[in-house]
Amino acid sequence: MTPDGMMRVYRAEPADSRPRRAIVVLQEAFGVNAHIQDVTDRAAARGFVAIAPDLFHRTGTETVDYADHATAMPLIGALGRDQVTADVTAACDHLTTADGIGRDRIALMGFCFGGRAAFTAATALPELAATAVFYGPGAASGPHSVLDRIAGLGGPLLFLVGDADPTIPEADLEAIRTAAAEHDKDVRIEIFPGAGHAFHCDARPQMYRPEAAQQAWGMAMDLFATTLPDHEEELQR
Q: Would residue 16 show up in a list of annotated catalytic residues for this protein?
């Protein structure tokens, strides 16, 4: 439940029953579609409770075709910092209530618009363990920029971007680096040569770059394994 009503959530469970940890997966501009559900399943296969909240719940629109930018852009443009934060907060509260998973055992992972949403929520929920932003345009410039709130960032943030992504210019990356340094925040930017926007999305063959996608996914999973160790890893510390 959010302040604006019920929000659908896609959920995937890990195979084991060890102490719980979770990842909130935030959608592209096209909704919680088959691809985002598959990504959520992949996160669960790595040992996390994984949920993908429907950030379009206010509109009644569930998914948008990849070719229909005319519909998708106004939907994400209408979701400002307050709505995004409210929805991610509700998703985290659900994990705490339903699964007993506290915020310090929850990480965020977002793609495209969801990357911007993950960056946004991370600056408002400092208790969260970590954040992985896959090519999140608008986080550093424009009406939804959150760099003025970067002081609120708690756990480490990994920003994954291709050097051929026209939606995230070098000036934005430099602004992120500068803001993070000013506030002594753990923000790491990884740049993938030859990769453009949506390089991780294997549902869009014209944009998918397998090598970059595998490397970026591995970096995100390594971050989450470090910040959200399972029980055996905790015992070894």
A: no
Q: Give the CATH H-level superfamily of domain 9-236.
A: Alpha/Beta hydrolase fold, catalytic domain (3.40.50.1820)
Stated pTM of the model? 0.96
* Average pLDDT for runs of 10 along the chain of length 237: 95 85 98 98 97 97 97 97 98 96 98 98 98 98 97 98 98 98 98 98 98 98 96 45
Where are the chain's structural domains? 9-236
Q: Would residue 201 show up in a list of annotated catalytic residues for this protein?
A: no
The single residue of 35, 57, 144, 197 carrying the catalytic annotation is 197
Of 94, 112, 144, 201, which residue is the catalytic one?
112
Residue 192 near residue 212, CB atoms below 8 Å: yes
User: Would residue 186 show up in a list of annotated catalytic residues for this protein?
Assistant: no
Helix, coil or strand: residue 155: coil
Per the document, the length of the chain is 237
Residue tagged active-site, from 54, 87, 165, 172: 165
Query: In this structure, are residues 183 and 159 in contact, taking their beta carbons and an 8 Å threshold?
Result: no
